[in-house]
Amino acid sequence: MRHSLAVLVLNKPGVLARISGLISRRMFNIESIAAGYTEDPNITRITLVVQGDENILYQVVKQLSKLVDVIKIHELAASDSISRELALIKVRAGDPGRRADIVNIVDIFRANVVDVNNETMVIELTGNEEKIDALCSMLREHGIVEMVRTGKICLDRGPGAAKDAPDNHLT
Question: Which residues form a coiled coil (predicted)?
Fold first, then answer.
């Protein structure tokens, strides 16, 4: 089972490396990790997706809570949160017929063409993992040259915020 965690940390150099290092040293797999500033410039929010059962989740949270720079750890339930990924996909588009086909596919997925040249197009798509996978599947026949994905980012639905959620630190 996949677990999404919002980890609020002090915005200091090396925090992300310490978190990923701690998890990898314990032999837990990070499926995706995304970090960025929050509404408070002193706090960074790291969205971490880990694979495993409840025991693995317990161990990850327990280990993370030992780090000095970790302020709060909050599990984001799939049913109570909104999650998205961003993908940039470069596709071969040498002839006009191929470009038209690609544009039609892009429109169906509500994606955007963000760069075009004589040989390639770059497509931007925001959505859940399944939507991005489906677009990639459609674009494979045109030839994906290069692709990058952000990994999952999540927010709880409703008026609450991760900083106000009950503390998930396990002792």
Answer: none
